[in-house]
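Project standup — Tuesday

K.O.: blocked on the structure for the chain from last sprint. Re-posting the sequence here as requested.
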Amino acid sequence: FPVLVVSRTGLGAVNHSLLTLDRLRRENLKTVGLVANHFSSRPGIAEREFISQLREFDPVEIIGELPLQESPPVSDREWDDLARHLDIDSLIRLISDSR
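H.V.: unblocked you, prediction finished:
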C-alpha cells in the first residue's frame, strides 16, 4: 500500500519528516504525500515555516495542513470541516497513480 505521512509541525519536525521520507524511499515504499498536523493554537516560527522549510529539501506532495483540534471530531459537520483542509482529489490521484 502507498504511504501517507502525517507529520507534526513543531521544532524538529522538518528533520523527523525528512528522515521518515528518506527511510520510506530506501525501503522502496511508495510515498503519496504528507499532511502537516498542527498542534498549537499559538504556533511558533518552526510550526509556521514547516511547509516552506520542508519544501527546500524534499519534493514530497503536500496534501494539506490540519489545524489544531481541541477534541476529536465526532459529528459529520466536524469531519467535513476537517476534510476541507485536505486536497482529497490530489490524494486519490496520487494513490491511483501509485498502483
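K.O.: great, moving the ticket to review. DSSP finds five helices and three strands in the chain. The beta strands are 3-8, 31-37, 62-66.
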